[in-house]
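Recap from last week: sequence in, structure out.
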Amino acid sequence: MVRPGTPTPRQALLLLAFAALAAIAAFMTLGARGNWDFVLPFRGTKVAVMVLVAYSIAVSTVLFQTVTGNRILTPAIMGFDSLYVLIQSCAVFLLGSTNVAMIDHRLRFAGEVAGMVAFSVVLYGTIFSRSRRDLHLLILVGIVFGIFFRSLANFLQRLIDPAEFAFLQDRFFASFNSVESDLLATAALLVAAVSIVAWRIMHSFDVLALGRERSISLGVDHRRMVTIVLVLVAVLVSVSTALVGPITFFGLLVANLAYLAVPSGKHRFVLPAAVLLAVIALVGGQTILERIFAFDTNLRIIIEFLGGIVFISLVVQGKTR
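Predicted structure tokens:
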């Protein structure tokens, strides 16, 4: 029930959509000088990348929290970010930074996405099978694999040349300024395919949020639906990470802001609210970064700082559900 004076879910979404459009308009026009035939495609590509990443991270985090029943978890806990770091470290260790830089970016993108999705499918297929505790076991194994991947990557980084380590560090920080435009179409197709599947099972998300027993009593094949959702989450996270790099706390930040912004637990309101908040944060943050700080800092650092504060706040307040 909506309190008097509180915006309804539709009103909240309209306000967020207006703010997102304002952030995009500000990014496209502020400080723009010279030939618009160059400015519009250049900035338009960056906006498209940020919107695609915002969509992928927001949707994947909300769906992951739905199936786990916990609002302080993100897909990063399954080890995707650590696996991305390990793949980059192995490539530089085995091939050298010069040869890695010469690899076709489309081939590198396909390899990174395929590696992370294959890891998730093997993990889900092996562990998530029978008892009710399998989901908890799955998360625990994901944490252990994440630590293992991170430790192995750190070991390899200590063996490589300092110059190659500096090359490697650039790949660990999410950046929207170095994305190849031809990767955007491929990434968008993958995200669109995931979205179609998610749209077809949208009616099940609210039931899954009620918990395993209630979902089963209401006629939902819980194990099958959770497996589908986890695979969709894996594809979205893999595409986002391979496109711009890992952003650990961003999903946690926008998902919990969406729960606060929309006075409804229904996914048809929470999901678009999380996407719009993610677009506002990324596009608005990048605008401030470029126009005020003149690229003197990295947007990921600001996002991780704010996301870390939100995470600690949620843990202290005990708002895990």
